[in-house]
Each structure stands twice: as C-alpha cells, then as structure tokens.
Amino acid sequence: MILEVFIEGIKLDLFEDETVTITQGVQDVKDISKIFADFSQSFNVPASKKNNAIFKNYYNADIDNGFDARTRKNSTINVNTLPFKQGKMQLNGVKIKNNLAASYSITFFGDVIKVKDLIGDDKLNTLDWLSNFDHSYTGATVLEGLQTGLDFTVGGVSYPRAVIYPLISYQKQYFYNSNASAPDLMGEAVNISYLTDRDSGVSIDDLKPAIKLSLIVKAINEKYGFKFVGGFFDSALFNEIYVNLNKSTEKLSNGFVEVETETSTTPTKDDIRRGSVLYSATVTPKTEFQNIGYKIRLSINGVVLYENPKLIFGTITAGALIKNQDLTGEAVTKFDVLTEEAFEFDANTNLTYQFLGSNPESLGNYPNTYSDQSISLDTNILNELKDIETYKFLVSLFKTFNLIVQPFGDDILVEDLQTWYSEGKIIDITEYIDTTEKQVDKGVIFNKIDFKFKESQQILADVFKQSNNRTYGNNELTLYTDSTETEKLDGETLDIESIFENPINERLLDLTNNTNTNILYCPYINRDLQSISGEPFMFFGVSQSVASNPIGYKGSASTYQEIDTSVIMPSHTRQIGVESFGLNFESEFNEFTGNLNQDTIYTRNYADYISDIFSDKRRNYNYTGILPISLLNALKLNDRLIIGNTRYIINTIKSNLTNREDELELINDIYDAPLASDISNNSVIIPDFNTYESQAISDSAEYIGITGQFPALVDTGDGTSWITLNPFDGGVPIFTFNYSLSENNGSAERSAQIKITDGLNNPTLTIVQNF
C-alpha cells in the first residue's frame, strides 16, 4: 500500500509504521443536528530534513516568518498514487527528544471544513454583493415593492422580485372597516380600508423590505469563492422564501435626519425659575436643492414644540419656546429635518436661556453649526441585516431543513437528506466483509426531540404561547413506553433550534359586517403595541388580490391613494388560500383558510428519518473488512450497502490507510424507500446514464418517486427496436426495471432514452451502446 500525504503540493516524509486513519461520516446517529466532514485522527510524521523545511523548524520560536500553525493548509492524501481525499492539514505540535525534534503531529480535515475556515467570524453585513439590491426609499418604490416586488439585474442575470415590501407592519396594528362613517383610528390601531375622503392606511413608515433567502446564500458564494450546488438551494420552493430585514425598531430613513440632540442643565437665578428657554434652528439648502421641500421639527424633553405643517422651501429659521418653570433641571433639545426627496443643506442652532423681570436678562446663547448635512432616500440592504455571524446563519439553515453538506469537486453539495439518500447507489460488499463476527447494538434512543424557533415577542405569537403553553410552529416529539403515554422511554433529549423566529399572521375581518377580507398581514409589534426588533423570520411572499377589499396607502405625509389590485402578503404556506408546504415544524392551522396545514418542514425533511430513529426495529451494526481502494474511493455516504441478505445505510466508515482495514458503523435500512419521503416531491432514475460495449447485454435501473409510474422508450435518432423493456411493477414508489440491448452490428454508436413522465422531475436514463 503506497500512502502519500501532501501539504500545499509538497509531499511529506512518513513513518513506515505510522497509522493514518480516515473516518468518513455525515450525520451521526447520536445527534442528527451535527454536520460532519471527513476527518482523521491525528498522526505523526518524522522530523526529517524535508519535513523540517516544510514546517520551518516550528519548534524554534525564534525563527522569523516561520510556519503559521494557526491556519490550516491545503492538503491531499493519495493511496496507490491516486487522489483519495482533499482537504486541510493542521499542525498540532512537535515532539522533542533529547533537545531534538523527533516528530510533528498533524490532523487532516475534509473539504467541508473550509466553509468555516473561509467565513470565520464574519457577519452577514459584510456580504457586499447584496449592495446590488440597494434602491431608492420613496413612496413610489415602496408601493412597487408592496404590489409587485422589485426586480434587479446583476451581472446580466435577472433577479425578479428580489426585494419586496410585504404587508408586515412594524409600527402599527391594522383593522379594516369599509363603512364610510368608520373612524380612521381605533385606539392605537389604524383603519386601512380605502375611502376617498379618508386619510388613514398602510403607511410607508410601517413597512420594511424583505429579501429572498436564496440571494443571501448567493452572496456568501460570491464573497468566499466557493459554490453551493445541489437541488435544494436551486429549487423553486427555496427561491420563493424571503427573510425580513428589521435590524432595529427605528423607521427606515424616509427623508429624515437627526441633526442635533443636546442635553444641558437649566440655570436658576435666586432659585426662582421665572424665565424661558428658546430653541431655534436655521436651515439653508445647498444651491441645487433650493426647490426641494422640507420640514423642521424641534422638540424639548421629548415634546414636539414645532413642526411646520406643510413643506417649506429655501432658507428658513424656526423657533420653539418653553417656560423655564416647566423644566425639571435638564433640557434635552432635538432638531430634525424631514423631506420626501434627497436633500443637502447647512444648519445652525441656538439655545437661549432668558429670565424675565423688570430688567430682562439673557443668561447665555449656545450656538452650534452643522455643515454639509444630507438626507439619502436609499435603502441600504447591508445596513438592514441583523447582526448575525454568516457561518451560524448557514448552520441554522442546514439544521432547519435537515441538509447534508459534502465536498463535490471544487464545489460544496447541499441537499436535503431524503433527496440525498434517494440519489445513492445500492452496493453489495459481502465479499469484502468479515461476516463471521459483528457487533449488534440497539439504536441510540431519544425520548424527546424538540424542533424550535426562537421565541418571539410579537403580539400574536406571545398570545399563542400564553394560551397554548407552546411556541407557534414548534414540534415537540416525545416517545413513551406504551400507548398510555405515562412513562417516557429511557433516552436522551435532542434540541434542533433555528435562528429564525416565527411570528403569526392575521387575516383581517371587515368590521362593517364581520366577514373575512382577502388581507393577510403580520403585526410585528408587541403586546404594548410597540415596535420590536427580534430575530429574522422566514415567510413566503404571496401576491393576493385586494380588489374586493381596497387598501389605502400613504406614501408620504401629503399623499394618499388606493390599492385595488394585488398586494404581497406574508404567508407561512407556499400558497395562501390552500393547504401547501408551510414553514413550520408542527402542523398548524392556516391563518388564511383556518384549516390544519400538515405539509411542514418536519413532514418533508425530518419525518422519515425521525421515525427511523424511533423505530423498535432499529439496530446499529459494526463490521470489519477490507474494501478495495477503488471502491472505497468511489463510495459515497448516501450509498446503501448490502451484506448478506441485509441492506444498510452508512453512519461512518473508518479506514486504516496504512494497514488496510475498514471499520463500518452501519444502520439497518428498515424502509423500502432509501429514507425518501413516502409522499415524494422528487424523482430520479439511478443511474441516469449508462454506456455499453457492442455485445448484447441485460441491465437494470431503479426509479425513486411516486406510485403508478411506468418507463417508456424515447427515440433520440437511432430508433428503439434494439432495446427491450422487461416486465416490472410500477405500482410502488420505488421499483427496479430491467432492460435488454441487442448486439450492435452497425458502424456507429447508438443511443436512446428510457423516460418516466411523472410530473415531478420526469427523470430519464440515457443509454449509449458502442459499435
């Protein structure tokens, strides 16, 4: 056995008797929330002249520009001169004997670890590619985002509805009353029903943007130079999920700038406050902004004392007066400028304390000057992203949707667990395994598995928790010893927690007649009807007609208009009016239809795997054997292995590359399907391509999908008479079909396809026969 280890392309010297062991695993049975990469046990290499040069005599700390053991280096392990594994190598330390270096301890890590290496502790707001989706923050733009979404083109690629302004209110609670005499306000709540002479509605101040979740993943790819491949991130479903942008409780910068906030102690004279405080401000627009209207707002101690009711133009001085006896020892003065367009200006302020008496006496002026002030009406996507580490964001996505992460050439394969298993092969390895001895253990028992979203302070989510003693959308699975459910199994608890929270949406009634409207919105405020800034949350942005329930929209303080077409609304379900895939772990009642929606993250991405874990038929098996290097190198962890008459799925394969022995930790495959959902939303033919020599031959392929499907021959130009489909059972979701090829006596290769038109992937098997 020839074993070679390379660091940065340079081959290391190895001990002849050193054991190098590689363990391959994806998801450990002990914790399904773990994400595994290939790794090795630490092993030693000699402190030879060559290795000393590679590691730059690391044991000598006095050497300048020495080997940096803080970072992992690109590495390759070859077996019999063929590449076996690529990844990273880390120097752990040096063993010293008799004051001389004897050996270096190193550890090999698989390729997936490079995700963490590259990202480090970076946060989402460093994903500069997302700046391509910045946009003007005006009444017209927000209205477009609310009605149809904002389209962008980046690098020649179109991104339709990349950013939306869904009907999520971050400032107000809404109600709907179409009665002409209904009030605009009901306490703190706003009537959003449109009437010509009404002035209330959905305000631009209430709304914030949301961006497609897939674009954040794309931005990670762009920043760090790797590419996620696989069906999950490319799926239409994932590309319809949005995440809200709500970094703080503050409104977006809708033509607003806080020019000054000052705190000072009010003076006294003879301990009698008889005077007043005058606070004034002057605004001087820059030359090219003389025709832009603006407002001045002046406040003292949180009380607005002056705000001009209409837009003003040109240079203006305004003042606010408060009696000194109304102050309590401090004066907090605040000066704001508001506008509906981009605006640049200079400003001066002055705070004057005066005492009134027979001889009025001024006690001081306190002026300030502010030059080159500007108001931008752009929405900066990076500024609105929550303060979340990028790696933690990715890991949460992987856990939420039960995704597999694996090296795939220079790319990184990301796939949901069921689909990943469904794409594996079935390989009989009986001849390479020692079947005379094996260890059979019970499966690791969980007595409770909790799927959790972050707790939300949102008013409806809070009420739901108080009423139901659980968080909306969470799924708590408990396993008992018998059907009476009085005693839990003796086992472990597993928590799978998402970084996302999960607020609840509300379908509005028309209070005129207490009938349902078509309006679904999210009041993202707390029980005290105050704005909150919690964790981000996922939702589908669904376009819904409001023709029968028109909405009023306030794009600015001076504009009010009707929306009677469509509005993008937040929805847990992919389709708002019917039961469809929903972004909950638990089955919950559809907020729009009122029906129980049972198509959840859990049922699609976890149910089969969890039922396997809970099954009383589950066993863990440990075998030893020696797999051929060619097979070991080609083996994928989603392949199913047959030993004797039993089929297994792989948990780990631990391979001693030096002395050649393989230890296999396997789990009995107790399903007819390879852990694919019984209600499949994916279909494949395995393999999807086969090449044959000219001789007559029979072969088979496997279909994984849905029941009632039958393969058919497709002529690609060479006819199909040379292929015969043999009888098969197409009445099950997984079946094997056999086919035969006659001898090719012609002078050219020929090809054809076998296709299953199932309305899912319509998978095909392409067959090529040489001459």
Give a brief description.
By secondary structure, the protein is mostly beta strands. The protein folds into five domains: 3-110, no CATH class; 131-250 and 382-401 and 507-577, no CATH class; 256-376, Sandwich (Immunoglobulin-like); 415-441 and 611-668, Elongation Factor Tu (Ef-tu), domain 3, CATH 2.40.30; 684-769, Immunoglobulins (Immunoglobulin-like, Sandwich), CATH 2.60.40.10.
How many domains would you count in the coordinates? 5
Characterize the main sheet: 8 strands, mixed
Compute the CA-based radius of gyration.
Answer: 34 Å
How much strand content do the residues show?
Answer: 35-45%
Distance between the termini: 38 Å
Describe the protein.
By secondary structure, the protein is mainly beta. The protein has 5 domains: 3-110, no CATH class; 131-250 and 382-401 and 507-577, no CATH class; 256-376, Immunoglobulin-like (Sandwich), CATH 2.60.40; 415-441 and 611-668, Beta Barrel (Elongation Factor Tu (Ef-tu), domain 3), CATH 2.40.30; 684-769, Sandwich (Immunoglobulin-like), CATH 2.60.40.10. 11% of the residues lie in helices and 42% in strands. The protein is built from 12 helices and 55 strands. The strands form 14 sheets. Strands 3, 4, 31, 32, 44, 45, 46 and 47 form an 8-stranded mixed β-sheet that branches. A hairpin with a 5-residue loop joins strand 26 (343-355) and strand 27 (361-375). It is globular, with a radius of gyration of 34 Å.
